[in-house]
Design brief:
The chain is mainly beta. Helix content is about 10%, strand content about 30%. It has a 7-stranded mixed β-barrel. A two-stranded antiparallel ribbon has the order 2-3. It has a two-stranded parallel sheet with strand order 6-8. α2 packs parallel to α3. The longest helix has 10 residues. The protein is globular and about 60 Å long.
């Protein structure tokens, strides 16, 4: 038997959004039932809302757009790292302890997963941590923060990772997931020409 962990955020009005900005809240509009009993709803949301995949265009001029990230790059084994002890930022030293391997996908589980509101002091990946991931040669990193960085001028974490073809997934929910290795499936909406896409994210482990 196997166990499926849904590690994506629920898209709903009132959910946590970047900066607690009202303008970033998704808007759900349910249409009145038609005479023939058909219901239809509409949603208006930022593509960085909830769990999402970033593409290089998000931070790099002339960067690649979201459709250039193939599904084969978002499916496979991934390792969840327990970094719940980290207070402010994930550093090179924090990551070195986990013996990361070239070609690995890592998901960082921090105190962010235990909050249902946006916290301005959320745990983020510091620039030196991003540079270490590039040195190791990881394929991708997923974070349980709505952003992978904060309080760094010129966004060096994003840009270091993007320039070295490291995929970034933000807004994961890892509270219920023990550290370890899982089969990961991240399925972004099939959008094109833009810098990000909302995604459903799953981990599959032994039951």
């Amino acid at each position: 038997m196997f166990k499926v962990y849904d590690i994506s955020m629920t898209i709903e009005e009132g959910m946590q959004v970047w900066g607690n900005s009202e303008s970033k809240q998704p808007q759900m509009n349910s249409q009145p039932t038609s005479p023939d009993g058909v219901n239809e709803s509409r949603i208006d949301m930022d593509v960085h809302c909830g769990t999402h995949v970033d593409a290089p265009l998000h931070m790099l001029e002339d960067g690649a757009t979201i459709e250039t990230i193939g599904l084969e790059e978002l499916v496979g084994n991934a390792r969840v790292l327990d970094l719940t002890h980290v207070v402010d930022s994930i550093t090179r030293e924090d990551l070195e302890k986990h013996g990361l391997q070239k070609g690995e996908w890592i998901l960082v589980k921090t105190k962010n997963s235990y909050s249902n509101t946006f916290e301005s002091d959320f745990v983020f990946l510091r620039e030196d941590g991003a540079r270490y991931l590039v040195e190791v040669g990881v394929r991708g990193i997923g974070t349980d923060g709505l952003g992978i960085e904060r309080s760094q001028e010129a966004y060096p974490t994003h840009r270091t990772l993007f320039r070295n073809n490291v995929i970034i997934v933000e807004g994961l929910r890892l509270k219920e997931v023990p550290p370890g290795t899982y089969f990961m499936v991240i399925a972004p909406l099939k959008l094109t020409g833009i810098e990000a896409a909302p995604a459903r994210a799953l981990l599959i482990g032994n039951g």
